[in-house]
Amino acid sequence: MPGAAPETPSDCLVFFGASGDLARKSIFPSLYRMVKAGTLTVPVIGVAFSSWSLDDLKQRAHDAVEATATGIDDAHAMERLLALLRYVDGDYQDPATFDALRECLGTCQFPTHYLAIPPVLFGTVVQGLKGVGLHENARVVVEKPFGRDLASARELNSVITDAFDEHAIFRIDHFLGKEEIMNLLYFRFANSMFEPIWNRNYIESIQVTFAESFGVRGRGSFYESAGALRDVVENHLFQIVALLAMEAPTYQGYGAVQAAKANVFKGMRPLTRHDYVRGQFKGYRDEEGVAPHSDVETFAAVRLFIDSWRWSGVPFYLRTGKCLATSAGEVVVNFKRPPQALFGDAMDPDQHPNRLRFRLQPEGEIGLGVRVKRPGEEFVGHERELLLPTESPLELEPYERLLTDALAGDSALFTHEDSVEAAWRVVDGVLTDHAATIPYTPGTWGPEEAAGRLIGEDGPWHNPEAHAATDGGN
Ligand code: BG6
User: Fold this and answer.
1) How far, CA to CA in Å, does 64 sit from each of 70, 214, 273, 324?
2) Cβ(179)–Cβ(397) under 8 Å?
3) Which of 117, 172, 231, 467 to mutate to test the pocket of ligand 1 (most atoms within 8 A of CB)?
4) What is the spatial distance between Cα 397 and Cα 65, in angstroms, rounded to a whole number?
5) Domain residue ranges of the chain, discontinuous segments joined by +
6) How far apart are CA 321 and CA 323, in angstroms?
7) Ligand 1 centre and the CA of 399: distance in Å?
8) Whole-angstrom Cα distance, residue 392 to residue 180?
9) Least crowded by CB within 10 Å, which of 207, 298, 342, 367?
10) Is 11 in the pocket of ligand 1 (CB under 6 A)?
11) What pLDDT does 314 receive?
12) Residue range 275-283: average pLDDT?
């Protein structure tokens, strides 16, 4: 079966969608950082259907890096990146585009093809590559969302696996390349003290919030085809849940992690319309590319159960949204209250049980919420948090990390077919069977219904605090 062997380093990176938004926002800055770090020395061929020239591509790469927070802080590295760039322009439907690509590849033998394009084009590009034999000795990196529902994910899997062996397929979920998210796995299994209480006997509920204070930022037409459930919940948030809920890997090696995560997806109970609140921020319908009567959700909150021995009956509440009160990602694990009310304040409904809080972004932090006695005669207390800021100065950008791994043939941080299909199975029903969106005011935490009906007595939601440096958009 075609596909570069796992240990073969690629000798060229081809990326489709070179004129797109993802390339500008994430890929060029990551390629630049890779050149700086010495992990990218092979040619990079951008492919797009934009009537561009190589100079246009170079200009875009330059501008994209210049627009980042650090800008171009190493002019030699920028020059080296520009010197590695090649460009092929053409329609992905046209076999001539793939002939031109083959010519451009010259003597390269082990390309990595990165599909940074809308999912509807994945099949066309894979077939185009196969048509000219460019799937041989190659690997393919596919951007999320991988399919639009269970049926299309299966179809896509079959098109891609028809051309590439599973070990040569790299399905990207860039959240898996984030330090704070990798740390969830490390934290759980490098410390043994949490394992005895990490189950339904001690955990009441788990919340995962991924909030963005900005809107769709010119991606209206993409968003219309996705919505918050497909864009963030089904992939990014489910991956976080899998890391939180998985059993311990049985051996050292990412294959064991992949298998343990796949079991979590398989144990997730399919969502019903009662587990799902959809919202749309006021003003979304005025965005370019958005239908005037659009019912696409820009906010999604779900209640999820994992039907396993460990998690039976423990609700996982997940929410994400655009134009919310702040930009932050947090996980909160709520532990059960003590079994007996020994102190005067024990039944106070405002009192939180113990909780473990993982702040995932914009900065990392782990907080353990505990109750301590207030000084004085009475046995009453208050909640204090043991706070552990995590280090991040050497952090690799997620795309930098993941593209470096893909070029090296290391698939540890990528998702597998069985997990992808199992995740779609969970959301498949509510993609079509759901209530209408509820409008919400930008700058709030979304529709009241998510705080009321959905989470009910398991609430309130823990709303992540703003961060002075990044709040208000990033
Ligand atoms: C992307 C979504 O996958 O993740 C975007 O398509 C979202 O809508 C983004 O804004 C969030 O990722 P990050 O790394 O920019 O916080």
Assistant:
1) 11, 20, 41, 27
2) no
3) 231
4) 13
5) 12-172, 176-467
6) 7
7) 12
8) 9
9) 342
10) no
11) 98
12) 98
CA distances to 137, 318, 360 from 363, rounded to whole Å, are 40, 20, 6
pLDDT in tens, 198-239: 999 999 999 999 999 999 998 899 899 999 999 999 999 999
Nearest Cα residue to atom 11 of ligand 1: 232
Q: Is a pLDDT exceeding 80 seen at residue 14?
A: yes
For 267, the enclosing helix (H) or strand (E) is helix 254-267
Q: Return the DSSP state at 247.
A: P
Ligand 1, atom 5, lies closest to the CA of 231
Of 300, 332, 151, which is closest to residue 229 (Cα–Cα)?
Answer: 300
Cross-strand partners of 372: 382
Decide if pLDDT at 470 tops 60. Answer: no
- Spatial distance between the Cα atoms of 214 and 472, rounded to a whole number of angstroms: 7
Which letter does DSSP use for residue 465 in this model?
A: P
Report the relative pairing of strands 111-115 and 139-142 from DSSP bridges. parallel
Residues 285-333: tens digit of each pLDDT: 999 999 999 999 999 999 999 999 999 999 999 999 999 999 999 999 9
Q: Strand, coil or helix: what is 13?
A: strand
What ligand 1 atom has the least distance to the C-alpha of 144? 3
Q: Does residue 397 have its Cβ closer than 6 Å to ligand 1? A: no
- Higher-pLDDT residue of 44 and 341 is 44
Predicted local confidence at residue 474, as pLDDT = 32
Assign 237 to helix, strand or coil: helix
Q: Which of 113, 174, 236, 434 is catalytic?
A: 236
Asked about 462 being catalytic, the answer comes back as no
Indicate whether residue 231 lines ligand 1 (CB < 6 A): yes
CA atoms within 13 A on the CB side of 420: 27
- The residues, ordered by sequence, that sit 6+ positions from 473 with a Cβ below 8 Å of its Cβ are 213, 214, 327
- Report strand pairing: 299-304 vs 316-321: antiparallel
> What was the pLDDT predicted at 390?
82
Q: Which residues on neighbouring strands pair with residue 207, listed in sequence order? A: 317, 332
With both helix axes pointing from N to C terminus, report the angle between 28-37 and 398-408 in degrees, rounded to the nearest 10: 70
Q: Is 12-172 a CATH 3.40.50.720 domain?
A: yes
Tens digits of residue pLDDT in 82-122: 999 999 999 999 999 999 999 999 999 999 999 999 888 99
Do 12-172 and 176-467 share a fold?
no
Is it true that domain 176-467 has CATH number 3.90.480.10?
A: no
